[in-house]
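User: Hi! I'm working on a homework problem where we have to compare a predicted structure to a textbook description. Could you give me the structure for the chain below?
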Amino acid sequence: MEIFISTICLLILAETTILTLKSTHKPLLNSNPKRKIYVDTSALMDQRLLPVMKTGFISDDMLIPRSVIHELQMLADGKDRDKRLRARAGLDVVRDLERIIHFNLEIIDDALDHTPVDDRLLELARTNRGIIMTNDFNLKKVAATEHIEVLSLNELALALKNDYAPGEHTTVRIVAVGSGQDQGVGYLKDGTMVVVDRASQLVGQEAEIELQRANQTAAGTMVFAKVLPDRSEKTSRGAKKVTNLAKRTLTKTKNRKK
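Assistant: Happy to help. Predicted structure tokens:
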């Protein structure tokens, strides 16, 4: 009986120890606070910002200084038509960002004095250990000198751009028949699916193709291409053209003699 009671006590002690360890480690999981991202005028005027934020890739706190909103209003009332339209669209982006649930958006009050908006952003980021989101090249350079991290939509777009140029030639192995008529399916070296016209008969073979266009979808990038004629086919076509040209020349010569 004593052995049984001792065993039960040991089990309870072990369970308690495990629960204690879990409880002490839980705060570590949430020990990293959310970053503070200060958004500038150029980022708000970029129409790519809203779709990016809707994906949920960024869940940090987004902070828009009142001075940035004021600058947008000034540009929206300005004489430059292009900047006026982009600034008005930027004000709409602020309103739409408030409806996204992936992050907290806050418009913070700051002094609307003659301090340049860029200087105000740098000061806020430096004081609060924050990040600046901007497309302004010069602001990014200045932030780098002060060791302030910068998020750039231009750099994000560059990182995600396709490496496939229309007209580029490459070789791909056709691995399956496509869903379209006479289509074959293969994969580029980076795993991107390529749909090749007139390649359904080439399953299991290597084909030289010419890239035509890329289609970006939620499932990824799909590239469309066509099969390039092989050398023998090119040679036969060239020979046929020469023969036809010779025949036409001979016919013209005979007609002139007549």
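For your comparison, note the following. The first strand starts at residue 36 and ends at 39. The chain has two domains: 36-160, 169-229. Good luck with the assignment!
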